[in-house]
Amino acid sequence: MSLPQYSKVNMKIFISHSSKNANYGQALVKLLTGLGINSSNIIFTSDTSYGIPAGENIFNWLKSRISEKPFVIYLLSPEYYSSVACLNEMGAAWVIENKHRMIFTPDFDIESANFKNGVLDPREMGFFVNDRDRVTEFVEYIKTDFNLTTNSVLTNRNIAEFLSEVGDISTLPKEEKLSFKKAKTEVKISVNERDAKPTPVIAEPAKSARNIKQSGVERYFQDLAKGKLKDEEVMLVYYAADTARYKLGVGWRTAEEVGRIHEWEELNELGDTLSKRYDPVMSRLEMRNLTEVSEITSHGNPRQVKLVEELQGKLLDLPDNFYQACDEIVSRASVKKKSSERNDIPF
């Protein structure tokens, strides 16, 4: 077995960011360490575990670390460009960096004059921190310089957790959010006191079963609660959630997708419920309006579908009864397999 290259062991990752965006930086650190990058190779000054050692001069320390030609992640935001310290840090890192990637917070304006006229080339490929496909591409890109885990399930799980975490982060500082909520409450109370009249309650018209239109996702989880789903329908959604694969191969790409599913099932000891019934379950999900075509062949045939956005959102916080159903399916499959093995023993 060949040893990893020296550069892969010793190259640093420097996350250049505004302290006001430390929450996004922390999520990045968690993603990187979860993928296998040693914490000692990460420079992130908003966390004492990854930042400036006690007693060090901040400017000298940063200068010495930047001169080691790290891989720089520029976490760009409105707060970054309003900070003189951040812009100075950007300039210093840009001069002697090894490689870099630009990552934007969700509220960043890539058309802003500050960005277009800065030292970083706005024509380079950057991406928003909550862009699932770009985050996945970024992970693949840094594999050339860092020793990341080769476990695809673990990689996809870390990416899914990262996207879930950044999705929950508000760009509004906590103190301001609390005061904003308080102000809204006070205004609401004063209006009620001024009116001194009970708010009339308007009864909604009764809804019959005929005029209630449920989404496919709502129906799916209702059927889950009632035990009406087929095992493979449950396991397909579990596969998508666990591996963060929201785009799935169909048509001539079916065999490739089934191979990935089989690897996932073996790795997690889940039996073969899904890999054996992949084609039928994709047809059922289509009928349930849970998928939509995302790629077609030159002849107009589907070769890839994606889960609808409503279902993608649900995958980040699946209910407990979903995982209970998964456990029961795996348990039944295990019992069935053992029974089959006993029947195959010659007497």
Profile the largest sheet: 5 strands, parallel
- What is the CATH topology of the largest domain? Rossmann fold
Number of strands: 8
User: Compute the gyration radius: what is it?
Assistant: 26 Å
Q: What's the N-to-C terminus distance? A: 45 Å
Low-confidence stretches: 1-7, 174-212
What overall form do the CA principal axes indicate?
A: elongated
CATH architecture of the largest domain: 3-Layer(aba) Sandwich
Strand order of the largest sheet: 2-1-3-4-5
The percentage of residues in β strands lies in 5-15%
User: Order of SSEs, N→C?
Assistant: HEHEHEHHEHEHHHHHEHHHEEHH
Structural class: alpha/beta
The proportion of residues forming helix, as a percent range, comes to 40-55%
| Tally of alpha and pi helices | 16
Which class of the largest domain in CATH terms? Alpha Beta
- For the residues shown, what is the average pLDDT? 79
Overall tally of domains: 2
Question: Can you walk through the features of this model?
Answer:
The chain contains 16 helices and 8 strands. It is elongated and about 65 Å long. The chain folds into 2 domains: 159 residues, Toll/interleukin-1 receptor homology (TIR) domain (Rossmann fold, 3-Layer(aba) Sandwich); 119 residues, Orthogonal Bundle (Arc Repressor Mutant, subunit A). With 347 residues, it is an alpha/beta fold. The strands form 2 sheets. It has a 5-stranded parallel beta sheet, with helices on both faces. Strands 6-8-7 form a 3-stranded antiparallel beta sheet. Helix 11 packs across helix 16. 27% of the residues are buried. The N terminus is likely disordered.
